[in-house]
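Consider today's protein:

***
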Amino acid sequence: MERICEILSVGVIVAVMLMALCINVHTVCSASIDEGRFAIMRKSMVEQQIKRRGITNEDVLRAMESVPRHFFVSEEMKSRAYNDNPLPIGHGQTISQPYIVAYMTEVLHLDRESVVLEIGTGSGYQAAILSVLVKKVYTVEIVEELAQSAGKRLQQLGYDNVDVKHGDGYYGWREYAPFDAIIVTAAAGHVPPPLVEQLKPGGRMIIPVGGAFMTQSLVLVLKDDQGMITTRNMMPVIFVPLTGRH
């Protein structure tokens, strides 16, 4: 009888182990299928939304195709991550439309040695795109919860050349200035003088300028080797406002 009980016990243990293995295999397979589906959606996003609108920089296109945008939105938004529009990320903030992310990145003329300041980290998606293109990214987010979650997310996904700071982006990040390029992902009423000061001679800044929740102008700020500033209106856009005490 004891022998029979031992055999039954072993059988139960084996059955439980097999069930756990099947569940794990099913979970892994489901995750692999999902990632494959997202990869197809990401490729389509690049082909249909970005290339067709004139983005030609191969490094930018590769970055847009490699960074998993669905990890930078909530679970409820994952199925819409690669749609041709911005998406809410909480706290009154959004993740920008994929084309706008690509466009703003391309006009900065980045290279592997660039050091970039981003104002408005959000969920960290733009910082991730920059991360695979440049030497170092410094990014400032005024909403503390977003700064903390974006920092953790970027580290977990391996974007370890990005430093995230909670603070008022209007004032930049003077400690690490000057920067080769600055990208601002919220609309300011004017181009912040501290950001102009922190832009390296020969550098570029891209920033939406205009009233809150109105049509704004995406402005390219150029600083020449002598420190002279010129600006160029690139296109109409709508961004959430740059907030802070300024």
Q: What stands out?
A: Residues 66-237 form a domain with the Rossmann fold fold (CATH 3.40.50.150). The longest strand covers residues 199-209. The helical segments are 2-50, 58-66, 98-106, 125-131, 144-156, 193-197.
